[in-house]
């Protein structure tokens, strides 16, 4: 069956295209930008473009989106056009074509303000049951698109899986304070404890979701590297996160010290991806244990796929105050 991948010039889209092509799968990539992984150039916001893109398609993996870094450079209507109307166009065409699976890439940013507990409160324990409180147009537009996904699953029988992915981009953090205190690799290693996932594991989750969508019918799952933390660790994580990490991984102190790395002094949220592992049979490989094992061997902890896709950025402009403009 032909698999349609939207956003094929982006981080995840390219990664999906690479893996599917290498596996000899029949795959079609679409994007507004030409690339080595884009078969058809066009926008999902154009309803007239969708039938051409959907020809003979049996599964859709919808990764195209405007992201958080676009909040400062794009208006609300741009997010509505791409993230909401574009998703609706695809859902409508997929339902009419009777596709076997529609996988929608969403984001843990959809949880919004629920991710930041009050000072001195325990770290937020984020499961799929936590209510979304979007705090910008990016989160709002993704939650709205999720709503249309569920509507098409419930009302039109379209098999839909929503994957709320945590961070997987390789670029430096958008927080200037984080960039000033931690080198990028150090930051991203730390994040694999609670709020990051390697792109190879993201791809495997999407492909499993496409395979399982018909059996599941409708589902929403968090996709993030499995955390080593327990729910009872939440208060200590907020007050003194390194003490928890060193208790769980005594070898971490020396491995980090060799590189001049530091752990985050406090962790404010922990993503729980247990449901994705249980319902989809997802088996992520790139967790914090893998990080420490890689450091001990002097190896890069990123997957080969992450290195192959590399940096892409989100804008054609270089900004003086960091990798992204300030909203």
UniProtKB/TrEMBL annotation:
Domain NAD-dependent epimerase/dehydratase per the UniProt entry, residue ranges: 3-213
The protein's name: UDP-glucose 4-epimerase
Organism domain of life: Bacteria
């Amino acid at each position: 069956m032909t698999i349609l991948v939207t956003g094929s010039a982006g981080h995840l889209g390219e990664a999906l295209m690479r893996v599917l092509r290498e596996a000899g799968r029949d795959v079609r990539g679409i994007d507004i930008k030409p690339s080595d992984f884009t078969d058809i150039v066009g926008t999902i916001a154009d309803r007239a473009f969708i039938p051409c893109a959907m020809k003979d398609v049996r599964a859709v993996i919808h990764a195209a989106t405007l992201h958080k870094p676009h909040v400062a450079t794009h208006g609300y209507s741009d997010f509505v056009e791409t993230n909401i109307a574009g998703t609706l166009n695809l859902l409508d065409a997929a339902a009419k074509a009777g596709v076997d699976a529609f996988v929608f890439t969403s984001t843990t940013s959809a949880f919004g303000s629920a991710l930041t507990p009050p000072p001195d409160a325990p770290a937020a324990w984020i499961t799929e049951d936590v209510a979304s409180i979007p705090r910008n147009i990016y989160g709002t537009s993704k939650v709205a698109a999720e709503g249309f996904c569920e509507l098409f699953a419930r009302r039109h029988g379209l098999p839909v899986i929503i994957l709320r992915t945590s961070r997987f981009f390789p670029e430096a953090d958008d927080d200037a304070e984080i960039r000033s205190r931690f080198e990028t690799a150090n930051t991203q290693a730390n994040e694999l404890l609670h709020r990051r996932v390697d792109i190879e594991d993201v791809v495997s989750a999407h492909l499993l979701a496409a395979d399982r969508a018909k059996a599941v019918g409708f589902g929403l799952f968090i996709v993030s590297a499995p955390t080593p933390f327990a729910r009872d660790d939440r208060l200590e994580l907020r007050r003194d996160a390194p003490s928890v990490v060193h208790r769980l991984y005594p070898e971490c102190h020396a491995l980090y010290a060799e590189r001049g790395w530091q752990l985050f002094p406090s962790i404010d949220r922990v993503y729980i991806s247990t449901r994705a592992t249980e319902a989809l049979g997802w088996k992520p490989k790139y967790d914090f244990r893998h990080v420490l094992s890689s450091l001990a061997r002097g190896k890069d902890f990123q997957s080969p796929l992450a290195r192959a896709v590399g940096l892409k950025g989100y804008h054609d402009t270089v900004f003086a105050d960091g990798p992204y403009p300030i909203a």
